[in-house]
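Troubleshooting log. The previous structure file for this entry was overwritten by mistake, so regenerating from the original sequence record. Sequence copied from the archived sheet and checked twice against the printout by T.R.
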Amino acid sequence: MTIRLPVFRLLLVLASVLVLAGAPARAQNIVVMVNGDPITDFDIEQRSKLDQLTTQKTPSRQDVINTLIDDKIKIKEGKKYGVDPTVADVNQSFEGMAQRMRITPDQLSKSLEVKGVRPDTLKNRMKSEMVWTSLVRGRFKEKLMVGEKDVADKVRESGDEKLQVEGTEYKMQPVVLIVPRGSTAAFQETRMKEAEQYRARVGSCEEANSLFRSTPNATIRETVTKTTADLPEALRKVLDDTPIGHMTAPEVTRSGIEMVALCSRKPTTIDTPKKREIQQKMYAEKYEKTQKAYLDELRKAAMIEYRNR
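Regenerated output below.
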């Protein structure tokens, strides 16, 4: 029987689809089972590309496998203690990374895809890091504490006797006028004018709260307290030049049009840069030692089964 040409072409298309459909199946070959959860060739390939992209080094296949095993163990341990970030939590972290890179989340996703990395690969790594940080800091909070005396001793050992210097404490409330994504330049300009009008009406944080809690498409956040050590020099200068009770000039950010209501500004004492540096280093050393011991313990108890080695 002769097959008509259109039908023949259709069969060829179907055959191609089936071949393509079979390709992922080969890529999904299970390499390791971790507590009943599989790690596939595709997972390894994706994580390898991500690690190479972020470190500019080519990791060994076994190093990547070990990292993926650790991720599975961390996620499982997190669920045991109720530490299980939602999709929204992970997406928020992803958006935060994009913001720090001064690009949109879509641009970050596309830049990953161009390199052959699915955005979910990065999000999975983020989720594991979020879970683990929360677990270690939560379960070993007291063990991770760095004593003031220990820090002071280390500072003096470095040849620096000074532990604190004079600084400034700022209490402020961020305000955001929402500008939806994709808004026109004209709309954004209108919102900037509105921000300037609101700013002229505010003479105290009480007035700012009263105004922005009742203003549609605007929000005022809770009071934030920062010291000189916490803020970049440019922002410190802006806050030093802003009268107490008034607002800083509006700025365009990814959240919308942002301003800060300055509630108070007063002298205080802050840790010296050397003390902060030593304190952070001592904490990092304690954290690294603690998390490694914790992970080693979990690895020993985990069911790790290699396939097709």
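Confidence is low (pLDDT under 50) at residues 1-26. Archived copy saved in two places this time.
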